[in-house]
C-alpha cells in the first residue's frame, strides 16, 4: 500500500476556493509528433548546448553559495534584448525574472491580487490565468471574447467599468486563439482599468505588432508586460519568464518573491541562451513562414482557421473535436483540445511535423467537419 493512500483530496482541509478545481493538465505523451504545448520545435544548436554546459559548469563551483537574489546580470541582458526588440529604452530596474512567466504572473497576483481582490480575463484565453487566480485566492472574473475570438472593445470597456477589477489580464497574441490586440485598443482598456493591467506577451516574437512595453512610460502605475523564454527562445525546459514595468512594480514583487528563487544554473543557462539569440530568433522566422503555409493549406482543405500572430493555429469547425483530436493522436500527431466548441489548436512544428499534421488533416477534412 502507498503510505497515506487511504486519504483523498476531498478529505483534506483544502481552502474552499480550491475545492472541485482541476490542475493544469496538457497531456505529456510520448508520440512522434508533439504539437500541443506551443514549444519551439527547433532544438538548441551544438554551440548553444556547449555554452549552456560551460556556463553551468562554471557556476557549479559556487553552488554552496546562494544565487544572486536579484539576478542583476540576467536582468541587464534581458533589458538589452527587450529594448532592441521593442524600441523602448528599458533598464535593468524595469525588468524582473522568475521560473517561467507562470511564476511572474503568480508573483503579480500575490502582490496586486489576493483575498478580497479580483482579476478579470477575456476568455477563451490562457488557462493558467484563472488557475493562478485561484492559487492566490484572487476572485476570477471571466469576461468574454466575441464569437470570432476578437476582443469587442466597447463590451470590454463596459465590463472593466462595471466590475472595476484590481487586475486585468490581456493576452496578446492570445492563446489559444492567435490574434493580437492593437496598441490603440490596449491604451483604451488601460485608461478604463482602475488597477494593474498585465499584458501577457508570451508569443510576441511571432507577431509584427508593437509591444505594449511602449505604454509603460505613459501608464507606469498600470502596465506590466509579461514575457517568456519558453517560446521564441526555445528555452521551455530552462524555465525563464520575465516582465517589463516601472521600477516600482519590481519593488512590489520583491515583497512576495521567495529569496533565491532563481537558481545559479537557471541564471547561467538563460544568459547563455540569450547570447545565441541571433541564431534562435532566426528559427522564429522559419516558424512564422510555416505557420502561414499551414494556415493556407488548412483553408484550402475547407477548415475554418482563426488568424494567428503566434506559433499555433486554432482551427475547425469539427463536429466532435474530442473525437477528431483522438484521430490525430491515433496517427501519431498530438495536438490540443482547448475545450472550445468545434475547435482544436495545433502548434507549428518542423516542416516534416507540419506535413504529418496536414496529412491527417487532409484525411479528416471531408468526414469530421
Ligand atoms: N502565457 C501564455 C499566454 C502562455 O501560453 C504560456 C505557456 N503556455 C505562458 C504564459 C507560460 O509559459 P512559461 O511559464 O513557460 O513562461
Please tell me about this protein's structure:
This protein is an alpha/beta fold and 369 residues long. The longest helix has 24 residues, at 277-300. It is globular. The strands form 3 sheets. A 7-stranded mixed beta sheet has the order 2-8-7-6-5-3-4, sandwiched between helices. It has a 3-stranded antiparallel beta sheet with strand order 9-10-12, covered by helices on one side. It has a two-stranded parallel ribbon with strand order 1-11. Helices cover 39% and strands 14% of the residues. 4'-deoxy-4'-aminopyridoxal-5'-phosphate binds next to helix 3. Residues 33-354 form the Aminotransferase class I/classII large domain. Keywords: Amino-acid biosynthesis, Aminotransferase, Histidine biosynthesis, Pyridoxal phosphate, Transferase. Its EC number is 2.6.1.9. It is an enzyme of class 2 (transferase). This is Histidinol-phosphate aminotransferase.
